[in-house]
Design brief:
Pfam families: p450. It is a peripheral membrane protein. Residues 300-333 are annotated as: Disordered. The structure is a single chain. With 560 residues, the chain is of the alpha+beta class. It contains 22 helices and nine strands. Strand 5 and strand 6 form a beta hairpin. The longest helix has 33 residues, at 2-34. Bound molecules: protoporphyrin IX containing FE. Protoporphyrin IX containing FE binds next to helix 16 and helix 22.
Length: 560
C-alpha cells in the first residue's frame, strides 16, 4: 500500500521538478540577457556581484554607504571615461570624464533633463517638488521659483539671518561661560542643524522654529525624523527599484504620515496667519509661492472667461489663493477638487511639495557643510587663525560690521575654506540623470538609450588625485588665485551642474559665510576627547553621516 502511494506521487514530483527547472532556466536566461547589456555594446563595466541586486548589493544590505559605493564604482572604472553598472538588473552608466559630464549635464541637457528619481505621484502630496519633477513641468516650476534667491531677496533676508545668529550667540555664550566644562563640548551636526532649521524657517516661511532655544522643538524633531533610518522607507526603496508597480498600486507614499501631517498643518497655519495679517509685508519663499498661485489662477480665470467656459467670474486675489491653499491643505489633501485641471501648474500639491523640499534641502546640506568646516578648523588651527584675520580686516574696512555685500564679495579666504569643505565632504555625493532622448557619446559607437540612467560620483571625482592631489588633505589654497583657475571644469560639482544646478546655492553660501564669520570672530574651536579622527561613517544612513556625531570644543576668543 505504502509502495503504491509513493509510486502514485511520482508523476507529480517529476512535474514539480520540471516546472522548477524551467522557471529557473527562464530566470537565468532573463538575467543573463539583462546582465549582458553593457558587454554586448562593448562598454567597460563593473561585474555585478549579485544576480538579484546587480552592483548595489553591499549598499542594499547596508554594509557600504551610498557615497562609498558609488565612489568604489568610480574607482573600479579607472582609466575609462565612462563605464556600466547595474542597479538590480537595470543598466546604468557611470560618467567619469569631466568633459563628458559637462557635455551631458550642460550642453546636451535636452537629452537628459530629468533625474533618476521616480515620477511625481498624485497620491503622494509632498513628492511633486523640483527634485522629482520632470520635463516641461519641471522647467515651468523652476522658471517661476528662480527669483526666490535673487540678490534683492537675499539682501532682504539679512536681518532675519542676523536674528538667528543672535540666538546662536546667546546659546554659545552660555555654553562657553558656564561652570560645567562639558557644556562647551558640542556635537556640530546637531548644533548646526538647529541653526540652519531656524534660518530656513525664518527666511523661507517667516516661521520661528525655535530649534536652538528649545531642546524639544517640533521642527528639529521632525528634521531628525526625515533623515533617520526607517524600515518603512528602506523596504519601500527596495520595492520601488524591483517592482515599482507595487508601490503605485498600493499608493505607498514616500513620506511618513507623521511628517506629512506636520508639514501640512504648519503650512496651513502659515497661510492662515498671512491671511489675517495682510498688513505685514512678506518677501519670502512662501509669499512667492502664494503670489505665483494667485497670478496663475487669475490668468486661468481670464482665459476661461474669454473662452466662455465659465459663467461666474471669480477674483484671483491673494486672499482667494490663500483660501485655496488653506482648503487644499486641510486633512492632508493637498489638491482640492476644483484644481484637477491640467492647465494648473501650481496646484496645492506643487506648492506644498516645494515648500517641503526647500525646508529639507535648506537645512541638512548647509548644516552638514558647516559642521565639517568647523571640524576641519578644530584640526587645523592655523586655517582658523587665517580666517579670523580675514574676517577682522574686512570688518575693520566696514566700520566693524559685515553687510550683505561685504559677506558676499570680500571674504575670499572664507569662500576657499567653504569650497574645500564641499570638496572633501560633498553633502550630495551622487548626481543622476535619466536619458530622455537617445544620445551618442562623441567619438564612440556607444549610444545611451532612452530610459538609461547616468550617474556621477561627486565624492569619487573630488577625491581623485588626478584632479585634487593629496585629496584627504584639507587645503583651501586649492580654491585661491591661479590654483582656482586650474580646476578642471566638471571635476568639482558640489552643487551639481547645468540647468538643474542647486537653486539654493547662493543662499547656502551666504548663510554659511555669515554664520562662520560670526563664530570665528567670537570663538576658537578645538579638538577634545570626543573628537574622532578620522571620522567613521554610518553605512545605514541615506546621507554621508558620521557615526556618533562630530564633536569639538568651543572657547570664547580672547581679544586684546
Ligand atoms: C551646502 C548646501 C547645499 C548643497 C551642497 C546642495 C547641493 C545640491 C545638489 C548637488 C543638487 C542637485 C543638482 C544637480 O542635479 O545637478 C541640488 C538640488 C537642489 N537643491 Fe541644493 N544644495 C544645498 C543647499 C540648498 C538650499 C539651501 C536649498 C533651498 C533652500 C536647496 C534646494 C535645492 C533644490 C530645490 C534642488 C533641486 C533643483 C532642481 O532640480 O531644479 N539646496 N542641491
Amino acid at each position: 500500500m505504502a509502495a503504491f502511494t509513493v509510486l502514485s506521487t511520482l508523476p507529480s514530483v517529476t512535474s514539480v521538478v520540471l516546472i522548477v527547472s524551467s522557471v529557473a532556466l527562464c530566470a537565468a536566461y532573463y538575467l543573463h540577457k539583462k546582465y549582458s547589456y553593457w558587454a554586448k555594446r562593448g562598454v567597460p563595466y563593473v561585474k555585478p556581484d549579485s544576480w538579484f541586486f546587480g552592483n548595489t548589493k553591499e549598499m542594499i544590505f547596508q554594509r557600504e554607504s551610498t557615497t562609498f559605493m558609488f565612489a568604489r564604482l568610480y574607482n573600479e572604472l579607472a582609466g575609462h571615461k565612462f563605464g556600466g553598472y547595474y542597479r538590480n538588473h537595470k543598466p546604468f552608466l557611470v560618467l567619469r570624464d569631466p568633459e563628458l559630464i559637462r557635455l551631458i549635464f550642460v550642453k546636451n541637457f535636452s537629452h537628459f533633463h530629468d533625474r533618476n528619481t521616480p515620477d511625481e505621484r498624485d497620491f503622494d502630496p509632498l513628492s511633486r517638488h523640483l527634485l522629482n519633477l520632470r520635463g516641461q513641468r519641471w522647467k515651468n516650476v523652476r522658471y517661476k521659483l528662480t527669483p526666490t534667491f535673487s540678490s534683492g531677496k537675499l539682501k532682504g533676508m539679512h536681518e532675519l539671518m542676523q536674528a538667528c545668529i543672535l540666538e546662536l550667540d546667546d546659546y554659545l555664550t552660555k555654553a562657553t561661560s558656564g561652570d560645567s566644562k562639558d557644556l562647551n563640548v558640542q556635537d556640530l551636526r546637531e548644533l548646526m542643524a538647529k541653526f540652519t532649521t531656524d534660518v530656513i524657517g525664518a527666511c523661507a516661511f517667516g516661521l520661528n522654529c525655535n530649534s536652538i532655544r528649545d531642546e524639544n522643538s517640533e521642527f528639529r524633531r521632525i528634521g531628525r525624523l526625515i533623515f533617520s533610518f526607517s524600515w518603512r522607507s528602506y523596504i519601500r526603496a527596495i520595492v520601488l527599484t524591483l517592482a515599482p508597480g507595487i508601490v503605485m498600486a498600493t499608493k505607498w507614499k514616500s513620506i511618513r504620515p507623521e511628517i506629512e501631517n506636520f508639514f501640512m498643518s504648519v503650512l496651513k497655519g502659515a497661510v492662515e496667519h498671512r491671511k489675517s495679517h495682510t498688513e505685514q509685508k512678506r518677501n519670502d519663499f512662501l509669499q512667492l509661492l502664494i503670489n505665483i498661485q494667485a497670478e496663475e489662477r487669475k490668468q486661468l480665470e481670464s482665459n476661461r472667461t474669454q473662452n466662455g467656459t465659465q459663467n461666474g467670474t471669480q477674483n484671483g486675489t491673494q486672499n482667494g489663493t490663500q483660501n485655496g491653499i488653506q482648503n487644499g491643505l486641510q486633512n492632508g489633501h493637498a489638491e482640492s477638487v476644483s484644481e484637477k485641471s491640467k492647465d494648473i501648474l501650481f496646484d496645492d500639491s506643487v506648492v506644498a511639495s516645494n515648500a517641503f523640499i526647500f525646508f529639507i534641502a535648506g537645512f541638512e546640506t548647509t548644516a552638514s557643510t558647516l559642521s565639517y568646516c568647523l571640524y576641519e578648523l578644530a584640526l587645523n588651527p592655523d586655517i582658523g587663525e587665517k580666517l579670523y584675520e580675514e574676517v577682522e580686516s574686512v570688518k575693520q574696512a566696514h566700520n566693524g560690521t559685515l553687510d550683505y555685500d561685504a559677506v558676499n564679495k570680500e571674504l575670499v579666504y572664507m569662500e576657499a575654506v567653504i569650497s574645500e569643505t564641499l570638496r572633501k565632504y560633498p553633502p550630495a555625493s551622487v548626481l543622476g540623470r535619466r536619458c530622455n532622448e537617445a544620445f551618442q557619446i562623441p567619438d564612440t559607437n556607444v549610444v545611451i538609450e532612452e530610459g538609461v540612467g547616468v550617474t556621477v560620483s561627486v565624492y569619487g571625482l573630488h577625491h581623485d588625485p588626478q584632479y585634487f592631489p593629496e585629496p584627504e588633505k584639507f587645503k583651501p589654497e586649492r580654491f585661491m588665485g591661479e590654483n582656482k583657475d586650474k580646476i578642471v571644469p566638471g571635476s568639482y560639482l558640489p552643487f551639481g551642474d547645468g540647468p538643474r544646478i542647486c537653486i539654493g546655492m547662493r543662499f547656502a553660501h551666504y548663510e554659511m559665510k555669515s554664520v562662520l564669520s560670526y563664530i570665528i570672530t567670537n570663538y576658537t574651536i578645538h579638538r577634545c576627547n570626543k573628537t574622532v579622527v578620522p571620522l567613521q561613517y554610518d553605512t545605514r544612513s541615506v546621507l554621508h553621516t558620521p557615526v556618533g556625531g562630530v564633536w569639538v570644543q568651543f572657547q570664547k576668543r580672547l581679544k586684546l
